[in-house]
Design a protein that fits this description.
82% helix; 0% strand; mainly alpha; 132 residues
């Protein structure tokens, strides 16, 4: 293992962990603003802005997964997870715009659960960038 690979791996892992944490926080914010839709006139605007931030966080997660994988020589599995999550986020946006709460709300719950699990896995002491 070269000196450059050793120095790159922790930075890539830190960026990946940060991206997953941001994504999880934005999904929690979306749950809060979804509740605000029922009680406040400001809820719609906050949920709409939060949706854009959540989608950006999902794209950041993909970028972080690629950066952790390529230079550091880590597993490509986080790239697959991040890409799948971006697809779920895309479906969530489409369902929200189409006003289909019967699928939008449960998918939001599933997304928050999956993001929380990914964050727990990324923060676990056994989580390391391993060669593929």
């Amino acid at each position: 293992m070269t000196r450059q690979t050793t120095a790159t791996a922790p930075r890539g892992l830190t960026f990946l962990r940060t991206a997953i944490a941001l994504q999880t926080l934005t999904l929690f914010f979306q749950a809060v603003t979804a509740g605000m839709l029922l009680t406040s006139s400001q809820g719609h605007l906050m949920h709409e802005v939060g949706a854009r931030v959540m989608y950006a966080a999902a794209m950041l997660y993909v970028l972080a997964a690629i950066l952790a994988w390529r230079p550091g020589g880590g597993s490509p599995r986080p790239v697959l997870y991040a890409t799948g999550f971006l697809l779920l986020a895309s479906a969530q946006v489409v369902l929200g715009i189409a006003h289909v709460p019967s699928f939008h709300v449960p998918l939001g719950v599933v997304m928050f659960a999956l993001s929380t699990l990914a964050l727990a896995q990324a923060l676990s002491p056994r989580s390391r960038l391993r060669p593929a």
